Amino acid sequence: MANKTYQFPEGFLWGGATAANQIEGGFHEGNKGMNIADVLPGGKGRLNILQEPGFQFEIDTDKYTYPNHEAIDFYHRYKEDIALFAEMGFKVFRMSIAWTRIFPNGDETEPNEEGLAFYDRVFDELRKHEIEPVVTISHYEMPVNLVKNYGGWSSREVVTFFERYVHAILNRYKDKVKYWMTFNEINSGLIMPIMGLGFSIQQEKDKYQKTFQAYHHQFVASSLAVKACHELIPEAQIGCMILYAPVYAYDANPNNVMHALSEERLFNYFCADVQVRGEYPAFINRYFKENNIELKIEEGDLELIKEHTVDYIGFSYYMSRTEKITKTEDDKAQGNILQGVKNPFLKASDWGWEIDPEGLRIALNQLYDRYRVPLFVVENGLGAVDKVEADGSVNDDYRIEYLHDHIAAMGEAIEDGVDLMGYTAWGCIDLVSASTGEMSKRYGFIYVDKDDEGNGTLARSRKKSFYWYQKVIDTNGKEL
């Protein structure tokens, strides 16, 4: 694919992606409340917290640092950052609204005007530069009050609070935002319930029931958001957002093939089936039966889910996953948050994430074959250690190579017949890593002077990849 020229659709939505809790900072400004990201400590130990039981959602500054509190200070520097996005030629900027800026505790009856006004300013600045916002309504920042006092998404009451939040932002920004998504990486709750579902599993026996009841509540909430969006902003589009990783069988052993299929259906398709097709998939019935799961479904829920399905699928793609039934500790892909076993055909990033551009083409074909709705790659990127040279430059050719190969894979998928709306590279500006809370795990085209200990000037500078991506956008993907 190295020398091939690709034809991306006219009006293709090139841009970059971020999340409020990973860039904004200002965690106590503007009457903002405390959210989940605010209580997650920095460092590689964060991943253990996210996947193990017992987290208490409390801040302990004697023991930990909390990089999300300042992040990269987008809260005060958004004009400078948006100007840099415009210089790269962004058509769209994927961002999220911090729920706790709008409803600090989550259960108030009236929204916080300071929070609403902040996003007015951000959207106005984007529009000034002719950049369309793509807004994720909930991106790993549930109010801590809803976690502690209601049990997160395990509580039906949270659906009401979420619907109130949705109506507040749709009404406020109906003339400024036309691309929306409901829940970020909704299926990630299967592996990281703290961020996705708003609770920490305390007892293994409660895991399955609590998790899937919470999912039902999110599906209802998502459908209510789709309904509201279609009614309040008829010209807008609203999608779901999933974390997608093709699952390969380690070999041709039929038992491993079936195991890989089962893992893929549960993780990749369960949430998307409900939000796109509007119904629970047939395969989940056996899973519920084998794990003693009995959902409490209220009258009208299934009809609501069926009637109000999403317009498109947004998804993140970072890696594929390889599976076999029997695996040893040596087999495991250690850095892969989705587990699985090492794929002997793939190299890995500095953080152990396996690099598989062809997997993105596979993912796009699988999703489009299954759902036949427009697709939007809203996260993809390489977390790497960047070195600042003596002259201030960052020569991130490894990032250019990674992105080149993945964008080429998208070009191939478009030739395969996939309807692809756009591409927003993850962490277009360096930000706090969601899984590890590190700044040293850098994704951006724009370098931010801040280290893992919080030191630095926060000054912005352009990496080599900045100019490369600028040309990609300017040529609509013809020059990679």
Write the layout of secondary structure elements.
Elements: E1 13-17, H1 20-23, H2 45-51, H3 74-88, E2 92-96, H4 99-102, H5 113-128, E3 132-138, H6 144-150, H7 157-173, E4 179-183, H8 193-197, H9 207-232, E5 237-243, E6 247-249, H10 254-277, H11 283-290, H12 301-307, E7 312-316, E8 321-323, E9 347-348, E10 354-355, H13 357-371, E11 375-379, H14 397-415, E12 420-426, E13 446-448, E14 460-462, H15 464-474
Parallel strand pairs: 1-2, 1-12, 2-3, 3-4, 4-5, 5-7, 6-8, 7-11, 11-12
Antiparallel strand pairs: 9-10, 13-14
**Count of spatially separate domains:** 1
The amount of beta strand, in percent, is 5-15%
Helix content: 25-40%
Tell me the total number of β-strands.
14
List the strand order in the largest sheet: 1-2-3-4-5-7-11-12
Spans of at least 5 consecutive residues with low confidence? none
Q: In the CATH scheme, what's the topology name? A: TIM Barrel
For the largest beta-sheet, the strand count, sense and barrel status come to: 8 strands, parallel, barrel
What is the H level of CATH, i.e. the homologous superfamily?
Answer: Glycosidases
N-to-C CA distance: 10 Å
Number of helices: 15
Order of helices and strands: EHHHEHHEHHEHHEEHHHEEEEHEHEEEH
On the 0 to 100 scale, the average pLDDT is 95
Rg, rounded, reads: 21 Å
| CATH class descriptor name | Alpha Beta
Please tell me about this protein's structure.
By secondary structure, the protein is an alpha/beta fold. Helix content is 39%, strand content 13%. The strands form four sheets. An eight-stranded parallel beta barrel has the order 1-2-3-4-5-7-11-12, surrounded by five helices. The chain has a two-stranded parallel sheet with strand order 6-8. Strands 9-10 form a two-stranded antiparallel sheet. The longest helix has 26 residues, at 207-232.
